[in-house]
Each structure stands twice: as C-alpha cells, then as structure tokens.
Amino acid sequence: MANSNLISCTVYSPNHSGQRTYKVTRITPHCMVGQMTAQACGNLFKKASYEASSNYGIGKDGEIGLYVDEKNRSWCSSSADNDNRAITIECASGTKHPYSMNMVVWDSLVNLCTDICERYGKKKLLWLGDKNKTLSYVPAEDEMVLTVHRWFAAKACPGDWLYERMGRLAEEVTKRLKDPAGAEREEEHPNTAAAAMINNEEADREKQIWSFFAGKGLNANAIAGLMGNLYAESAFRPNNLQNSFEKKLGMTDKGYTTAVNTGTYAGFVNDGAGYGLAQWTWHTRKKALLDYAKEKDASIDDMQMQLEFLWKELQGYKASMEALKAGKSVQAVSDAILTDFEKPADQSAEVKRRRAAFGRAYRDKYGESGADYSKAIAKEEKTEAKPEETAAKSGKLFRVQIGAFSSKENAEALAAKARKAGFKAVIKEE
Ligand SMILES: [Zn+2]
C-alpha cells in the first residue's frame, strides 16, 4: 500500500522492522508530549539512537509528516503485535496532563484516519473503549479498529485529552466514510440520468482545465488543489448560476447566460449571485469578468475566457499564488485557494477535507506530471492541426473528418465545438 497523499514532508526513520507481518487493521494515535512540527518530530526519529518511530506525525500546525512507510512496522506502541497491525500516528500535544492538542491537529488526525480507512477499503472506524474487548475482537473486512499506547505500556499516551475523544474520532471518521464527498456532487447532479449525460462533457472540461494550468507550469499538486475547489464551486460548468439564485431570479443557467450576453439582464454585476467556474460573486470581480468577456468578444460562459480570467485574477492573490507555485501538497494548495481566493462562508475542516479529496481524485486521474500531460495534449493538437500546412507544400490535401450526421443541427454543433477548440471546420453536404 502506498502512503497518504496528505503529507507535506517526509523524514524517513531507520527505526523500523521492515515489512509488517499482519495486514493493517488498526490505527494507533499517540501524543508527542511537545508542541512540535512534523519536521521536528521526524528529526528526532531520524536518529537511530532514538530507537523509536511512527508511520506518521501531525505537527502543531496540522501538517502531516511521513517517517515510516505504511508497509513497514514502526516502533511506536511498545507492542510488536500492535505495531505490525497498526498505522501509528504521533500527534503534537502539550507537555503535561491531559496532553491537549490544537484543533488543527485534531482536524488533520480525522483527515488522515479517513484517508487511511478509504485506501484500505474500510467503511467503519471502531472504538471499543476497552483493551481486552479490542484485542480479542476480530474486525470484519471493512472495519478498522482504534487502539492506544497505554494498553501496552505504563504510559499516559495518547493523553486524556485525546483518549476522551477516541469515540468521537471513530464516529467522525465513520460518518465521512459513509458520505464520500457526496453532498456537493448531488447538489449539482440532481439525478443519475442527468449525471450520465453530463459525464462526457465533464470529462472534456476536466481535460481542458488540467491542460490549461499545466500550460502555466503548475505541478500536479497545484492543479489538483485548484481543480478540487473549482469542482466544489461549479462542477466545472462555466455557465453555472448559484443554485439559490435560479429560484430567486427565476432563471436557469442557460437563461441567465443568454440574458447577460444579449444585455437583456443588467443585474449581472450587482445581483450577488455566484456564477461560472469559480462562482464569482463579489461585484468588482463580476464586473471584471464581464469586462474581460467583452474585451475577448466571448460569451460570458466561455470556458477558455473564464480560465484566462481566473489565471489573471489569481496573480493578485499572494497566498494562493505562493501555494500554487510551491505545489507542496494537494491539501496545502486546496486550503490556500479555499481561504485566500474562494473564501466561501463555510471554511470548516470538513469543507477543506472534501475539496482536497476532490483534488486528489484529479491528480490520480491525470497523473503525477502536469507538465507532461500538457505536452502530450499540445502534441496531439499540433498533429491534428498540420494537414493544411502539408497541403501547401505537397499540393496534396489530407482531410480530417471528425463527424458525420444526418441532422444538420448536430453537424453545426460539432463544427462550433471544433472552431472553439481552435480548428477550422467546414460542413460538407454529401
Ligand atoms: Zn505513545
């Protein structure tokens, strides 16, 4: 099994036993007994003389570090039996009883446990609250079990602060596993038939967005972190009008778009309705978007125009740009875009987790290297765009046909799409 995507640093520790001898069925959170960063904790475990380690550590700022690959047995819980089965997580805490933890540490712990359970195909995280009960329990295939260090040694670990919250940890993680980032998707795709129809177009939009930002030199973490947010905002639909305003204004996405384009609706700038890829809402931003569309002579829902506008706008958001350029992790970029750029009312840990989860799905889908993907796309487009040039040199013509239709309307629709993508398209009747 690979490691978590949530990490922002890796500091390998030599203190482990190599490959674990049991499948992962447990998670054991510990307290660091110190308000350390993930890096600082890793630096301790890096020393062989320290003779201890954990798979992960969560720093006082919520950042997650990897010290021992998940496939290996860490030296963490004073029990070979436990550590062979458990993914162990050190969490930054106070130095005295009850070893309290910052809420950002708690948030990261919930995120990391959810991520671990998801990757091992677990649907439930259990806290049985009792040593004997837990150790004699045989978890079902889809169950993960929480254990604590104090059961295996005369220690207070993980401290009463966390010990008292183990039930909540199990509940919170299980709740998230049951609702795998579903709520926002449902909102935009009210029924599955509609969702299926949208799927093809959605895939095209995904590729277009990915390659646009890869073309700007962003790495895969950065593009994915940005895309997770855009997906949450608009499901990648550039004509998306904020749902609550569809009712309020009595307009659909298409109706609103047309009315803005034709000038029959003058409220675009000041109506306070979220619109487009990034759900632009604030009047100055909507005015800038409208001006940009006019300047480019593009429809207000034109994807390329919105992407260019978005990129231009992002340059003014320092924290977002820094995160995008660093591309440290999907979570880091996603959080920066959420809190610095999108700034929705709800910026809770749950929203952060969900948006980053969307983002990671795109990173998995479009690969580690954004730049390579962009090159591949550019190459494809070049090859397809060549025939005219070749014809000029050789006198021969090589035509590329991309569709044949019995209905002229359908042919025109495809031709329009091709023109939008930058190809010359002619309709021939046969
Ligand atoms: Zn411990």
Question: How do you describe this structure in short?
Answer:
It contains 19 helices and nine strands. With 430 residues, it is of the alpha/beta class.
Describe the protein in words.
This protein is of the alpha/beta class. Helices cover 51% and strands 8% of the residues. The chain folds into 3 domains: 170 residues, Peptidoglycan recognition protein-like (Lysozyme-like, 3-Layer(aba) Sandwich); 177 residues, Lysozyme; 35 residues, no CATH class. It has 19 helices and 9 strands. The strands form 2 sheets. Strands 1-5-4-7-3-9-8 form a 7-stranded mixed beta sheet, with helices on both faces. Strands 2-6 form a two-stranded antiparallel sheet. Strand 4 and strand 5 form a beta hairpin. It is elongated and about 80 Å long. The site of zinc ion has 3 residues, from loops.
Topology:
Layout: E1 9-10, E2 16-19, E3 26-31, H1 38-45, E4 56-58, E5 64-66, E6 72-74, H2 80-85, E7 86-91, H3 103-119, E8 124-126, H4 131-136, E9 143-146, H5 159-163, H6 166-178, H7 183-188, H8 192-214, H9 220-234, H10 243-249, H11 253-262, H12 283-295, H13 303-314, H14 318-326, H15 330-342, H16 349-366, H17 370-385, H18 387-394, H19 408-420
Parallel strand pairs: 1-5, 3-7, 3-9, 4-7, 8-9
Antiparallel strand pairs: 2-6, 4-5
Helix pairs in contact: 3-6, 8-9, 8-13, 8-17, 9-14, 9-15, 9-16, 14-15, 15-16
The protein binds zinc ion.
Zinc ion (ZN) binds next to loops.
